[in-house]
Specification:
The protein is mainly β. The chain contains five helices and 37 strands. The strands form seven sheets. It has a 22-stranded antiparallel barrel. Strands 3-8-9-6-7 form a five-stranded mixed sheet.
Length: 676
């Protein structure tokens, strides 16, 4: 957004895409495939544009240049800069971090890694704190669903999708090897080295190896408050928040021809994390610990048989292990230790048919098997068979972008012990349209409607003493009406864009936990009903202040009322949902000069409530976090070196996102990167 990029394309391909700008193949291959290798080329210099303004449903993108200047260490830090996104953060580098789009809940948010879904059938929500930004090329967030109809059926099956697109090898002329290494170091003994090696095997194949290690003791200082009026405090340090993480990835990239490509990726991740406890009055103690391991192998293949027919398929095997330990658990044995093992087998196939230059149709079908094993006595050992099929159509010209889809979901459940949950059959429709009413102005009006659901997780259904096998899916209806605008004005203001969207979401059969026999024993039931009304606004502008000096400004703002309308006689009726701020937003400014780049970022969240009843005792104060960074690039012979220094939360504001889980105050971080 607002940055000049040099786009390398085939001369013939560029002419073809100019004539058929709506082609799914052009959109994807021009970004992902054609940039992979240095070839005879024509260089077309133009302003980089995402499809945010033209999209029928809200789309937001952060490319690698923007991510670099956001003062973000983990993916969760970057996602906070998207409009309409709430990240629940339990503090520190190792704390759990989940993302919710427009207050629908983290289980309604799909996460994809290079276009293939990442899931957690056990809890239904993905901890995005485990994702690094070290090898990320761009993040794309879609509310509703993407305008790209040529995608796996599972990408149609969420209220919104966050796609993590990793780097694709790219080689300059005469070069067969790229090496990039970096070292981050900062407050609280943060050490984060990483290495990326890309090797061109021949004109068709390339290899990529990427790995990183991160370690931090997480012992940041915070203020403990001892009275309601905060008239008694003490300085403390966070306890049990250390983290050690290892991530490695190996990728094989094949451009077999102009119309055929194949990708294979193997991934391994392990982490050892202390689980910081709540900092309750006179209590700052926790011995809980979590160990995670995950590995997957995924493959993607695409073949264009003719200008009208394109086929793609994806497959994935995923294994994950989680061990939780609490040596001070209040039971007869005085300890608690649980181990969970998940496996997934996934296969997807999609077919695209271009009926005319402006009209295309797709058919996608996915099958998956998910299992969960645990070390607990009497565990159900559930197995879920899922079959998703989506048919979709899309029409595009200069004035209109319109798409519609229908998703069919078939789910069967099995258990080894006890009774299985009911099997499910469900249809989910979507329709979206963007209209450009004035030929001379890039002003568009857009609308989408989507009805989607999320199945109960394995924990919801089968967790010992808590699970409820009779749960219904949680249903969501989404409505969105918005206006988008972009314009190239003059040499001083090369580019400006803005979007504003009003939305209404209705959640029924919301899955909630309520006390049963006592406050220590809860039951999961379908009793919730939520009304969500809100406005998301985004804006960005680029200013050419002087020769080779550019100022980029961007920001977003969200206002939302998320009301519990379950029961009119309840104390929480028409109260804001817990941990949902009514107002939040972010801002970013980047000043690029020939000497260095200075960046500033802001995160703001309004007040929230820790319980459904909106009374003063349950209120958490608003907060703002300000960060600065300064980066410098220089060449030493053929080696590109960069140094970035960051000051995070430089006003040292004390705040909580989740009550009694204090966030870090001021910290510093430095990154040295060498690219050969």
């Amino acid at each position: 957004m607002g940055r000049n990029h040099s786009i390398k394309v085939f001369l013939v391909w560029g002419a073809f895409c100019s004539l058929m700008a709506t082609s799914e193949l052009c959109a994807q291959q021009s970004e992902d495939t054609l940039q992979a290798y240095k070839i005879p080329e024509v260089v077309v210099s133009e302003r980089y544009r995402t499809q945010e303004v033209r999209a029928a449903s809200p789309t937001q993108t952060l490319n690698k240049e923007q991510l670099k200047s956001l003062n973000a260490l983990q993916l969760s830090d970057a996602v906070k800069h998207f409009a309409g996104v709430t990240v629940k953060d339990y503090g520190g580098i190792g704390g759990l971090k989940t993302v919710s789009l427009r207050s629908l809940g983290s289980a309604h948010t799909g996460i994809t890694y290079d276009g293939i879904s990442v899931g957690n059938m056990q809890s239904g929500q993905t901890d995005i704190g485990r994702f690094s930004l070290d090898n990320v090329d761009r993040l794309v967030l879609n509310n509703g669903q993407s305008d790209n109809i040529f995608q796996p059926a599972r990408s149609f099956a969420s209220a919104g999708v966050l796609n993590i697109q990793t780097l694709t090898p790219s080689f300059s002329e005469g070069k067969n090897t790229n090496i990039s290494t970096s070292l981050k170091a900062g407050s609280w003994e943060l050490i984060n080295p990483s290495l990326l090696v890309e090797q061109k095997v021949n004109n068709k194949w390339a290899l990529s190896l990427n790995g990183e290690w991160m370690s931090s003791n997480g012992r940041y200082p915070y203020t403990m408050y001892y009275a309601d009026k905060n008239d008694s405090t003490s300085g403390e340090k966070r306890i049990n928040s250390s983290v050690k993480k290892l991530r490695t990835e190996v990728g094989l990239f094949g451009n077999l021809s102009d119309t055929e490509q194949w990708r294979v990726k193997a991934y391994y991740y392990q982490a050892s994390r202390g689980i910081p406890g709540a900092t309750i009055m006179y209590y700052n103690f926790s011995t809980e610990h979590l160990w995670d391991k995950e590995t997957f192998i995924q493959s993607f293949y695409k073949k264009e048989f003719s200008p009208k027919w394109v086929f793609q398929t994806a497959a994935k095997w995923n294994w994950s292990y989680q061990r939780y330990s609490n040596p001070d658990y209040n039971n007869e044995s005085g300890t608690q230790e649980n181990k969970y093992y998940q496996q997934e087998y996934y296969l997807s196939g999609s077919l695209l048919y271009r009926a005319f230059n402006n009209l295309s149709f797709s058919l996608s079908t996915d099958g998956s098997i998910n299992t969960l094993n645990a070390s607990q006595e009497g565990f159900a050992y559930p197995k879920r068979y899922s079959w998703l099929t989506a048919i979709a159509g899309k029409y595009v010209n200069e004035q209109i972008t319109a798409s519609a889809s229908l998703l069919a979901t078939v789910v069967n459940e099995e258990v080894k012990t006890g009774e299985a949950a009911r099997n499910r059959r469900k249809l989910s429709p979507y329709t979206g349209i963007s209209i450009k009413p004035f030929e001379e102005e890039e002003l568009r009006v857009r609308f989408f409607y989507k009805h989607i659901f999320r199945l109960p997780s394995f924990n919801d259904l089968y967790y010992l003493q808590v699970g409820n096998k009779k749960l219904n899916p949680e249903n969501t209806s989404q409505f969105n009406l918005g206006v988008t605008y972009s314009k190239e004005i003059n040499d001083f203001i090369p580019f400006i864009s803005a979007t504003i969207d009003a939305y209404y979401n209705k959640v029924t059969d919301k899955i909630v936990a309520i006390p049963n026999k006592s406050t220590a024993i809860w039951t999961i039931v379908n009793v919730g009903e939520v009304d969500i009304k809100g406005i998301d606004a985004t804006a960005s502008v680029s200013l050419e202040l002087y020769k080779d000096i550019q100022l980029n400004l961007s920001g977003n703002y969200t206002y939302q009322r998320v009301l519990d309308v379950t029961a009119s006689d309840s104390k929480t009726y028409k109260h804001q949902l817990a941990y949902t701020p009514r107002v939040f937003g972010s801002g970013h400014a980047s000043l690029a000069t020939p000497w260095a780049t200075l960046s500033y970022s802001l995160l703001h969240s309004g007040k929230r409530y820790v319980m459904g009843e909106n009374k003063p005792a349950n209120r958490i104060a608003s907060y703002s976090e300000h960060s600065l960074s300064l980066s410098k690039d220089w060449m030493i012979k053929k080696v590109k070196t960069s140094l970035q220094v960051e000051v995070l939360n430089f006003l040292d504001e004390t705040y909580n996102i989740v009550r009694y889980y204090p966030m870090p105050g001021r910290s510093v971080r430095a990154t040295l990167k060498v690219v050969y």
